[in-house]
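Q: How would the structure tokens look for this protein?
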Amino acid sequence: MSSLPSPRRVVPGRLCDEGLLSSATAMASIGFDPSFAEVAESMSHGGRHYSLAWSPGAMPDTDTQITLCGLILAGGRARRLGGVEKGLADWRGRPLVATAAEALRSHCDTLLISANRRLSDYRSWADKVVSDAPEFDDAGPLAGLLSGLRCARDLGFVGVLVMPCDTPAVSADIMGELAGAVRQDPQRMVLARVGDRLHPLHGYYPVHLVDALQRDLEQGGRKVMAFAGAQDPRYLDLPVASTVFRNLNAPEDWEAP
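A: Here is the predicted structure in token form.
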């Protein structure tokens, strides 16, 4: 797929103040507001970097760099497919999870996979495999998202670029557009949107949402759309066909062109 045009309808947002410290650091010496120093430091790990696109006049014209953690959700039970381990099932000659790994790897410094079975088999495709917490067994993709966010936070990342294992038409170009949208405000969620349809499992989730997500799960929350919509997300409108985001949930999906 050719590179997508730059998004025009992503709503710019401000940096969330939650969790930021006000210590003066080297950033202050070059004219940055010291209140942004800690978040800038937390975004400057080694590996692949992304520049933050600050609103004009808000900050000096100086590049700040962040690294992203990728997360593939592969912990589902695939009941409609007879309980197979979907991420490891054959898709056009290789494991399905390989397509998601390729879509994320070039945009992320570290790649995680959320899985609950055959963990050793998934390690070939990720830097680390995480599993759902026992108290959230069978709680759906939100449980996998929570485990991934916790791991990313422990590794020092500011957020995760996430996608499920079963959308093989979602390319590295599309995930790159989402990665680019993070630059405006890395403390705020970004979700993919095609027309009037949201795709909340293709997006960016900052790690400061860990506590809110855990509370939601403890209170019985299981709906990704409900949780995501309550977090003041931004939306990235993508000029692609809606079928690009089709999940392989049923046997007939695997037979579609």
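The domain at 69-252 is CATH 3.90.550.10 (Spore Coat Polysaccharide Biosynthesis Protein SpsA; Chain A).

Confidence is low (pLDDT under 50) at residues 1-64.

Upvote if useful.
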